[in-house]
Amino acid sequence: MARPKQPLHLSCEQQAELKRLVQAPSTPQKIVRRARIALLAAEGKDNKQIAAQLHTSHVTVGQWRQRVLDRGLAGLQEAPRPGRPLSLPAHKVQTVLTEVVQPLKGRARWSCRTMARHTGLSHSAVHRLWAANDLKPHRTRTFKLSNDPQFEAKFWDIVGLYLDPPARALVLCCDEKSQCQALERTQPGLPLGQGHIATRTHDYYRHGTVTLFAALNYLNGKILAERAPRHRHQEWLKFLQAIETASPASVDVHLILDNYATHKHPKVLRWPARRPRFHLHFTPTSASWLNLVERFFRDLSQDVVLPGSFGSVEELVRAIYDYLADRNLQPQRYEWRASGKSILEKIRRARQALARASQVPKDISETAH
Question: pTM of this prediction?
Answer without folding.
Answer: 0.69
